[in-house]
Amino acid sequence: MVKQQFKAESKRLLDMMINSIYSQREIFLRELISNSSDAIDKIYYKALTDDSLNFDKDSYYIKVAVDKENRILKISDTGIGMTKEELENNLGVIAKSGSLAFKDENELKDGHDIIGQFGVGFYSAFMVADVVTVISKALGNDDAYKWESAGADGYTIVPCEKDSVGTEIVLKIKENTEDESYDEYLEEYRLKAIIKKYSDFIRYPIKMDVTEKRLKEGSENEFEDYCEEQIINSMVPIWRKNKSELTPEDYENFYMEKHYGFDKPIKHIHISVDGAVRYNAILFIPENIPFDYYTKEYEKGLELYSNGVLIMNKCSDLLPDYFSFVKGMVDSEDLSLNISREILQHDKQLKLIAKNIKTKITSQLQSLLKDDRDKYEKFYKSFGRQLKYGVYSDFGSNKEVLQELLMFYSSKEKKLVTLDEYVSRMPEDQKYIYYASGETYERIEKLPQTELVLEKGYEILYFTEDIDEFAVKMLMTYKEKEFKSVSSGDLGIEAEESQNNTDSEENENKDLFDYMKNILSDKVKDVRISKRLKNHPVCLSTDGEVTIEMEKILKTMPG
Ligand code: ADP
Ligand code: MG
Q: Where is the signal peptide (predicted)?
């Protein structure tokens, strides 16, 4: 028997892949299962177009079987199978994707898409196996063939026996080394978990014999092993279901099952788009700040599926930083079962989806604000900081929408109000949107600088977070009203009163002021008579753009 060499480029690719492309070994199972699913899709498609075939859904499935003692893991399917030539062409040349060729030949119409556009998935099996054997019988053929390879040094193909149409992939799982253990790929519970994690929503049943302890008949405390074939995947993804079929609990369960968080989400967003790019998404806005949210370990991102197959755990390109708290997933048939983040980053479809999602989240937050103020405030207490950060960092494109989502504590209402609410009740003679910064509402309330503004009956927004002032500095105006700190020199109020009066008072007390200026020379720039004080004898004010609070922050910054 002559050993065939992999085509040269395949050999290089294979080495590279085994060693580097995939960071997690466990995904080999996802790849093999997705190939099986593709193969069943193909036979299904043939049956749709060929009257002599009929597709009985029950006889199509994927089976995962373990032989722990012999370190064998088998994945078999009742899909379309491969001829000798196909084994040679599909498994002998890595970069050639059989799925793509099939697509072209049959001019697949929409709705019959086949996962997998890259021809490297199969080879991921070599990450966990020394030897991979593929036994296959193609639809419409009497002979079966066995393809076998121990990695980059080549493969053999020989005739063999196989009763039914389909493919069986046999992996001889690697022996453990000093650094690495491969035993987990022979453990039922682990395989089950991997299938659940990556292939839960494969359309066809993934079966596995599962051994469980159960109470011995007639006994109350004696257990026995009981083996039973189970279907591991749930098959119909919740995101493909009709919104009207789903209850709030369904979404909550999904949130739990996916470990998106330990809290209950404040809101779910279910999106089905059938436009320039087709995708389904389920997004959640959590109630609480995730425990690791402000740590370096926290990674924003959504799970990304290509037609039901998980291809990335945290696709960060799908979310802007200021929505980094959003959890959830996106499934698109228009994305390829891709291998690298780098390629995805430049994917046009992905960019479109990301833009779409950003708009959806924004509008959903807007309607939450409008329809369920309590919930919105709860949300805002957890994540308002992010929105302000968004205004600050992404002002070019999103400031207009994000500013509508901002809330600040109001001197008048004694609660959070929106900028729109503030501006809509401004008296006609009020020129500015006033704000005052401080550590707490109570402390701000006692600031002498607030007196004159409050006396005028104007509302003040209380800023207690360091980002607040930076955010409004970025906005500059809201509905053409400028933001103004109550501690700035010109409040736009004094002008009404006669300047002469102040001047003469200042002249009368010139000696006193000079004396004070002298003593405080390294602390203040000037000492003046103030019109804004009522109950307080003195206050500090600034004459530039930077307020006292901002100065404090700037001083704590390094550099
Ligand atoms: P891709 O799935 O992206 O095409 P793979 O490396 O995963 O790339 O698989 C290569 C090709 O091998 C597939 O396109 C398919 O033609 C063939 N193949 C792999 N596994 C099976 C299977 N279980 N049944 C039928 N054909 C298969
Ligand atoms: Mg594949």
A: none
